[in-house]
Specification:
Elements (H helix, E strand, L loop, with lengths): L1 H6 L2 H31 L4 E10 L2 E10 L5 E10 L2 E6 L3 E3 L4 E7 H8 L9 E7 L4 E6 L1 H28 L4 H12 L1 H131 L6 H29 L1
Helix pairs in contact: 6-7
Length: 353
């Protein structure tokens, strides 16, 4: 087979290849078309069933949704029950693209339409039919469950009424009569067990009450302990705060004492500095006074020597007396200067003291 394919000419290979590609393309187009038709038709319609309660009345609500992007016609909506089609709406309804249609039926009307006077309900399906006759099915669950509960409660109520009527008329069934006989036979045991049960229940109840009271007492004691502990903590906190306040006051007093001490030391130091400066000034003044005194005494001595020298010259040269008087006046003026300097030194010393 492989050799035969290898021996084929190039024209045949190209022809067969093109035919295969054409067949594959045709199949793809057909599949896409089928999917599009299914989306537009059967698969475009989605069914939902809900049980809704409005104003204390239950409704069965069927919703048909169009999931496609084109408008779809719904020719009929109905139920499939026991292989029978039971249409709910046979009018053609156009459902717009990406839109839905709702059909609401009261639960009682749905029950009478579905089962009538029967006391049993079986599985059912809801269907929607498009314009081509294709149907989409969905199981009815919520409404069937609700109908089963209603029927069960009605059956129980009717059975209770029938049993009550039989007991009133004395027309018992075999099982009921047998149950009454067994109840009479075992009534002493039943009473004993009931009394035991009541006694045990009473003791258990009393024990529960005692435990509850004990728990309340324990809770109360725990609360008292917590209150006492809280008060103790408050007292400790108050004591600590008081001690801290006292320590703070002591620290403030000590700080004030230290500040006053430092201030006094600074004042004493300043006074000592001031006294030292005054002593230095007095020493400088005394030194200046001594220097000035020494200078004035030296000047006086020089003046005296000059006067003596002048007198000697006057005596020698026989100078007239008019020249001698100024010399004497000059001597007296130098003495006055020395007295003035001494007085100034004394005044400065007194001021310094």
């Amino acid at each position: 087979m492989i050799d035969w394919i290898k021996n084929l000419e190039l024209e045949f290979v190209i022809t067969f290849g093109l035919l295969a590609i054409l067949i594959i393309i045709s199949l793809v187009v057909l599949i896409k078309s089928q999917r599009t038709l299914n989306l537009i038709g059967k698969r475009a319609l989605i069914l939902n069933e809900d049980l809704v309660k409005r104003d204390a009345q239950s409704f069965v609500e069927f919703m048909v949704s169009n999931s496609s992007y084109v408008n779809v016609e719904a020719a009929a909506i109905g139920l499939l029950y026991q292989k029978k089609l039971m249409p709910l709406k046979e009018e053609t309804t156009i459902i717009l693209a990406r839109d839905s249609f709702k059909l609401s039926i009261p639960l009682e009307a749905f029950r009478s339409y579905l089962i009538g006077n029967d006391v049993k309900v079986k599985k059912a399906k809801v269907y929607v039919e498009d314009s081509l006759g294709r149907r989409s099915y969905k199981k009815v669950r919520n409404s069937i469950v609700a109908l089963k509960k209603i029927l069960k409660s009605e059956i129980k109520a009717s059975q209770a009424d029938e049993k009550k009527e039989r007991f009133e008329t004395g027309n018992y069934r075999f099982g009921e009569r047998l149950g009454l006989v067994i109840a009479v036979i075992f009534s002493p045991f039943t009473k004993t067990f009931k009394s035991l049960k009541k006694g045990i229940n009473r003791k258990l109840k009393q024990r529960e009450i005692r435990l509850e009271l004990r728990q309340k007492e324990l809770d109360h004691q725990q609360m008292l302990r917590e209150i006492a502990e809280e008060e103790r903590r408050e007292d400790d906190r108050a004591k600590v705060e008081k001690r801290l306040m006292e320590e703070k006051k002591k620290a403030n007093i000590e700080a004030r004492k230290q500040a006053l001490k430092r201030k006094e030391e600074a004042r004493i130091l300043a006074q000592e500095v001031k006294d030292t400066e005054e002593e230095l000034k007095m020493a400088e003044a005394e030194a200046a006074l001594h220097e000035y005194t020494d200078t004035s005494e030296k000047d006086d001595r020089d003046d005296l020597q000059k006067d003596d020298h002048l007198e000697d010259q006057m005596i020698e040269n026989e100078v007239p007396e008019e020249i001698k008087e100024p010399v004497k006046k000059k001597k007296t003026s130098s003495k006055k200067k020395s007295e003035v300097v001494e007085n100034e030194g004394k005044n400065e010393k007194n001021e310094a003291e």
